[in-house]
Amino acid sequence: MSKNIIICGVGGQGTVLAAKVLSQAAISKGERVLSAETIGMAQRGGSVVSHVRIGDAFSPLVPQGQADVLIAFEAAEAVRNIDFLKPDGTVIVNKKIVQPVTASLSGKAFDEKEMIDYLQKRAAKVVAVDTEEACRELKSSKIVNMVLLGAASRAGLIPKDELASAIKMLVKPDFLELNLKAIEWSK
């Protein structure tokens, strides 16, 4: 069975590691994986989009309207990338909005509720995650990526044990316990 996943966010949020974890979990099961990232502006807080294709695919890029799942580390990035999602697809979205400089300068801030409402009109299922609460409870701001992967696991994207195995292979030992707690967090 093929699965197309788009992971999007802003530079520095851990989107690339999340894509590597999903890819490694599939590879460990013997599945074929193609992936690609657009990370040129990531170092400046710009958009980052990772494509992960598991199973039969001939290109690493997910075509528009073909993603089974959109994992968005930021609500505005979910809105920007919603056209990748299939009509019956699932969105896993961080409720937190990272206001771009242009919004701050213009005085027109992005609104979380407005973004989530828009996503709910465009996707079959939307799982909105309060990562700020997770960061407070787990006492780290560096676990947003794993909290969102945990939410994707609970939504049926990947079994939690496969996710944990991939994390053990890819995450530095000093951060392993924290990342494993993060995939378990839910509210």
Q: What does this entry look like structurally?
A:
The protein has 187 residues and is an alpha/beta fold. The chain has helices spanning 15-28, 75-81, 101-106, 112-122, 131-138, 144-154, 160-170, 173-184, and strands at 3-10, 33-38, 47-54, 67-72, 85-94, 125-129. It has a 6-stranded mixed beta sheet, sandwiched between helices. Strand 4, helix 2 (75-81) and strand 5 (85-94) form a beta-alpha-beta unit. Helix 2 packs parallel to helix 4 (112-122). It is globular, with a radius of gyration of 16 Å.
Question: What distinguishing features does this structure have?
Answer:
globular, alpha/beta, single chain, 187 residues, 8 helices
Fraction of residues in helix: 40-55%
The unreliable regions are: none
Widest sheet: strand order? 2-3-1-4-5-6
- What is the 3D form? globular
N- and C-termini, Cα separation = 30 Å
Q: Can you count the beta strands?
A: 6
Give the integer mean of the pLDDT values: 90
Number of helices: 8
Structural class by SSE content: alpha/beta
Over the alpha carbons, how many angstroms does the gyration radius reach? 16 Å
Major sheet: 6 strands, mixed
The H/E string reads EHEEEHEHHEHHHH
**Strand percentage:** 15-25%
Question: Short description, anyone?
Answer:
The protein contains eight helices and six strands, in the order βαβββαβααβαααα. The chain is α/β, with parallel strands linked by helices.
Topology:
Elements: E1 3-10, H1 15-28, E2 33-38, E3 47-54, E4 67-72, H2 75-81, E5 85-94, H3 101-106, H4 112-122, E6 125-129, H5 131-138, H6 144-154, H7 160-170, H8 173-184
Parallel strand pairs: 1-4, 4-5, 5-6
Antiparallel strand pairs: 1-3, 2-3
Helix pairs in contact: 1-7, 2-4, 6-8, 7-8
